[in-house]
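In the design runs reported in the main text, the only information available to the sequence generator was the tokenized backbone. The following block is the verbatim input for one such run; it is reproduced so that readers can re-run the procedure and compare outputs position by position.
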């Protein structure tokens, strides 16, 4: 299943990827105006408007003995999309581990296990409030679908140029960081000099006074 998803994302089968990508975008865009149940029902009805007449046509040819009784969608029916016991157990384990990890991380962030991580989480939540005002979750899902089907292919086509741009950006960031550190070092007040140690009193006068007393 993972290999099929990779093939779809990288457009290795252009026809299949185009059908999946177009169907996802049109289906998600339709949810803006209609409910998800209505969209799903119309998609199934549209598919059956094609498959049902074609199946009747092949059945008529079979009755007229012009067709040896070949089902037009036999290849799709023979395609085994069921999961084995091992694959089912692996998927369930991965889902459980992912949910447990998410719950643990959210609990750690909410109950301030690390102050820095919790501050980052608060900033992220604050930014998400602005994103929620400007857009909704469905728009973000459509944007994510478009990005998933376009960014990997764009990176594959322009890999050398993108790496060159990333190196240039990293060099610029490093240069600005060094400049800020040097500027901070020049503006930072120098530490106050330590007070000089007082010299120890000479012991000679005390020795002379003892000699006079004798």
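Verbatim output:
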């Amino acid at each position: 299943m993972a290999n099929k998803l990779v093939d779809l994302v990288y457009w290795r089968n252009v026809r299949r990827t185009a059908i999946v990508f177009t169907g996802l975008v049109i289906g998600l865009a339709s949810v803006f105006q209609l409910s998800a149940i209505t969209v799903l029902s119309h998609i199934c009805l549209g598919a059956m408007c094609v498959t049902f007449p074609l199946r009747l046509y092949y059945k008529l040819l079979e009755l007229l003995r012009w067709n040896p009784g070949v089902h037009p969608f036999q290849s799709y029916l023979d395609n085994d999309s069921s999961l084995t016991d091992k694959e089912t157990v692996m998927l369930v384990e991965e889902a459980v581990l992912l949910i447990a990890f998410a719950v643990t991380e959210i609990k750690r962030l909410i109950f301030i296990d690390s102050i820095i991580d919790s501050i980052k989480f608060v900033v992220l939540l604050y930014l998400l409030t602005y994103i929620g005002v400007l857009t909704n979750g469905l728009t973000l899902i459509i944007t994510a679908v478009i990005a998933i089907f376009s960014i990997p292919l764009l990176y594959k086509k322009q890999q050398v140029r993108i790496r060159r741009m990333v190196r240039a950006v990293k060099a610029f960031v490093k240069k600005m960081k060094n400049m800020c550190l040097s500027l901070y070092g020049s503006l930072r007040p120098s530490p106050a000099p330590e007070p000089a140690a007082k010299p120890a009193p000479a012991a000679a006068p005390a020795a002379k006074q003892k000699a006079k007393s004798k």
